[in-house]
Known about the structure:
By secondary structure, the protein is mainly alpha-helical. The chain contains 3 helices and 2 strands.
Amino acid sequence: MSLILFGTGLLLALLAACAEGRWVQADRTDAQIQEDWNHCKEEVLAGDEHRKETLAGGINLSSCMHSKGYRYVEAPPRKPSGSQM
Length: 85
């Protein structure tokens, strides 16, 4: 069981690292967005969806974020203020 959770967590981390978009909602800080993302991830991992051999876990993760009022935009993450490149 712990191996499944580890593999699922690793897969989510890899997918998040490769993603070219981000979840946005007006008036939410990056910390609040991350907190909501973690909450949705915990909900999905606590259910049976992650055991299926489909993308049901990923679909439910998106549904959770949408239910919280977020939308996914195809854009790179924002740079912290004061960052120069």
